[in-house]
Amino acid sequence: MVNEKIVELILSKHPNLDRNLITARMEEIRHRTEGLIAEETLLRLIAAEYGVELPATPANTIGVSSIHLVPGLNDVTIVGRVIAINPPKCFGGKRQGKVASVLVCDEYGLVRVVLWDSKAERLGSYKLKFGQAVRFSHGYTREGGEGITELHIGDQSEVEVLPENLNIDSFASIEKLATKISALPTVKTKNVTVVGNLKLFSSTADFTAENQKSGIPLRFVVEDETGAVPVTASAAKTAELHGVMKENTSVALVNAKVRSSRSGALELYLDATSYVSFPCREETEIANIKETMKNISVKGEICDKPETREITLSTGEKVKLTVFTLRDKTSSIRISAWRNHADVASQLEPGMRVFLKHVYAKKLGESLTLSTTARTEISFLD
User: Of 153, 137, 142, whose CA–CA distance to 78 is shortest?
Assistant: First the structure.
């Protein structure tokens, strides 16, 4: 009904338009976006192309608020802003598959969204990023860790990135949900969200993309306008954050645990259920990349056919590695894409243009290279 009203409104403003032309344009956009955008949103985009103003969809009509979520619900839709993304991981046992998760916030709080199998595999194609508005439809709720309700997204569910003009200004930002550092000693919950400036005081030089089991735990300090707090990461979280931490950058710690350190002082602890988000550096020209640079973005043209091979780590684990050369107007550099990113990179062809986000520079022999991390994003440019 809503879709038909949008079509009628477009035709009323442009009587010379043919209904079939609108349908053809909708199919064209649907094909280009691999079916990731719902029909109503497609029609809204087409209306905008023709300068037709439509009433903004109220936020409270496009999803259930996080405060109303309880375990055992079916056919649930929520809308929120992306706070953090955990990339797909494989699991085994009686049932094998993939699982990924996304943390989103609305005006009331945070929701962990768990994506399974095909939806987890397609997480990269959704091109989600921090602060983006997204709608998860036809999911179901379950009780997760610590009794917190989660939304689960399976094969029959839908994931949709929402247009920027959607009326969701009422959604809280991560800053509004954050606890001030000065208030940490008096919080009633053990899990908090903290936003501040990162001060790195203990690096993990022994951690590498090839060997994520060695090294010392990551320790750093986060400061806001009210104070500072030390942070310690678990071994798994330390490996995940390798290559993406940079001193004096803004950082958001979500679901961090408030605890006492061995000395009795208050600290925050990051475990497997914690999320870390921070803004990426602006795009860097290849000629300006230095060995110490981390969490950078580059874009350019593929120079050669990517080569994929299997690498055996010192732990005995076998992982995929794809290497290729990227060139921009200033220089060229070798790229090493590991694990899940190796599969994406293997599909690249010479002449294609790509954008790499959250990569880090390191020396390989006498040459400088860029390597992916768990948080790397690879997107294709027109």
Answer: 137
Mean pLDDT of 42-51: 79
**Topology of 286-381 in CATH?**
OB fold (Dihydrolipoamide Acetyltransferase, E2P) (2.40.50)
Query: Could you give the CA distance from residue 14 to residue 30 in angstroms, rounded to a whole number?
Result: 22
Report pLDDT digits (tens) over 266-323: 999 998 878 887 655 557 889 888 876 777 889 999 999 999 999 888 778 889 999 9
Is the entire prediction scored with pTM above 0.70? no
Q: Which CATH superfamily is domain 59-161 in?
A: Nucleic acid-binding proteins (2.40.50.140)
Residue keyed to tokens 């610590």:
146
> Phi and psi dihedrals of 342, rounded to 5?
-65, -40
> Cα separation of 133 and 152, whole Å?
18
Q: What whole-number distance in Å separates Cα of residue 360 and Cα of residue 376?
A: 9
| Gap between the Cα atoms of 245 and 202, Å rounded | 11
Extract long-range pairs of 142-147: CB within 8 Å, 24+ residues apart.
142/71, 142/72, 142/114, 143/71, 144/112, 144/114, 145/273, 146/191
Tokens of 381: 């440019």
List strand residue ranges (DSSP E) for the chain, in order: 76-91, 97-105, 110-116, 133-143, 149-153, 158-161, 191-202, 219-224, 227-233, 250-260, 266-270, 275-277, 296-302, 307-312, 318-327, 332-338, 353-364, 367-381
- The CATH code of domain 178-277 reads 2.40.50.140
